[in-house]
């Protein structure tokens, strides 16, 4: 009977329409050269009008300083938000920017400057994904961020984050 | 001033840049500020930057021209990726030194506009006032200006068959690579708003 209680609570939590908070640690990102680029979402499942909050962490894994010439993260990172599609399709179309996303990513004047990351330093950035991109239907969206590494890492090296899946659940009837 | 596919925005969108950076992200900046300071009393040194701009964006679909304009001779607070005041705060921009010591530090800035496929042409016209400031480390002390540098850049990028060409470029100081000293000044920077509030209309 005692063992039944956690199961019961779990069911109640799901039936209460509140998507569960993420309890496991955020996924570790992929490492490219000295950069580790991690992407995580605050929840695995969202209701249709929930803000989809994702966090990117760019970390210097080297034992020396790294310089990176970058604009603000919302402009600097490429953000592939892949639209849902059948599993057999070998590609996914990308979500387009919302009007607000267009204003944030392409505001007109922008600037970039050098930032120095000491060993272990992180650039932590938060994005409200469905404010920036049109995510029109309840389903699974695969998301990956990326940027081109400084040339001292190598020519045309792309630093990729891990891929996450955010799920927009259907609205309750 | 050049149009390039060097990554500045959204991974692979070309940009109209101030300065040519032949090897992207290798540390070659567009404008570099080299600063040296000595103080008998100690204190903080920082940069603060204002911008006046009159940029325009012509839509490829219908020729509509959107303007991003602060107004003639109106300067607003520029922003950097860090969004701090003074700016460049996350790049060691605010340097605190003890009394009787000297320090030198280098910062840089690279303004640019995104060249998306929505646009047939994009014109930049941007003027900057960069203040080199000192703040005593006594309670309530404000930043005061030590010197000022004015600089500018402009140019037009035009799309044709999917590629961009640049014309009507200008920049000061010139020629490219020129080094100038700041002008001694005690003028305090004044602004009414932040450049992020100056949208494309």
Please explain how this structure is put together.
The complex is a heterodimer of chains A (173) and B (201). Chain A has 4 helices and 11 strands. Chain A has 173 residues and is of the alpha+beta class. In chain A, strands 3, 6, 9, 10 and 11 form a 5-stranded mixed β-sheet that branches. Chain A has a 4-stranded antiparallel β-sheet with strand order 1-2-4-8. Chain A has a two-stranded antiparallel ribbon with strand order 5-7. In chain A, a hairpin with a 2-residue loop joins strand 1 and strand 2. The longest helix of chain A has 12 residues. The N terminus of chain A is likely disordered. Chain B has 201 residues and is an all-beta fold. Chain B has no helices and 12 strands. In chain B, strands 4, 5, 6, 7, 9, 10, 11 and 12 form an 8-stranded antiparallel β-sheet that branches. In chain B, a hairpin with a 5-residue loop joins strand 4 and strand 5. The relative contact order of chain B is 0.25.
Helix content of chain B: under 10%
Structural class of chain A: alpha+beta
The helix/strand series of chain A, from N terminus to C terminus, equals HEEEEEHEHEEHEEE
Please report the total strand number of chain B as a whole number.
12
Give the end-to-end Cα distance of chain B, rounded to a whole number of Å. 24 Å
Question: First CA to last CA of chain A: what distance?
Answer: 33 Å
Unreliable residue stretches of chain B: none
Computed over alpha carbons, the radius of gyration of chain A is 19 Å
Number of helices of chain A: 4
Structural class of chain B: mainly beta
What proportion strand of chain A? 35-45%
